[in-house]
Amino acid sequence: MILNIVIEEHTVPVEVPDYLLDEAEDFFSKMDADMDRGYQMSRTWIEKPDLVQRCQIAADKLYTALHTHNDQLSQLMAAYILKRLPGVTTVYINTEGDMLEHELVREGMQ
Fold first, then answer.
1. What is the pTM for the complete model shown?
2. How far apart are the C-alpha atoms of 2 and 34, rounded to whole Å?
3. Are residues 100 and 53 in contact, defined by beta-carbon separation less than 8 angstroms?
4. pLDDT in tens, the chain (110 residues)
5. What share of the chain is helix, strand, coil (3-state, %, to 5)?
6. Burial class (CB in 10 A: 0-12, 13-18, 19+), 77
7. What is the gyration radius of the CA atoms in the chain, in angstroms?
């Protein structure tokens, strides 16, 4: 599967092997457990991040992983998004520092 990450005018396709969606479930569950305690999303403390916010958090980690050329983390964060929000094809990254503005686009929606 491919998740397209749009950063300003550049699109970066992140290829996620299908097996990773299931094999990384323990890792995803740990991420969810960590987020269950609340999360600082840019300037806003979110007591109980909802599913979209959790994927925005993963998108922010994915953005950092792309900048540091951490391919393994990029794939894991993309896999988290694909697993938790089936049908997501594209993530638009807000580069102005507000992860609440990362936009997740599902297939057939723009």
1. 0.94
2. 26
3. yes
4. 999 999 999 999 999 999 999 999 999 999 999 999 999 999 999 999 999 999 999 999 999 999 999 999 999 999 999 999 999 999 999 999 899 999 999 986 55
5. 45, 25, 30
6. buried
7. 13
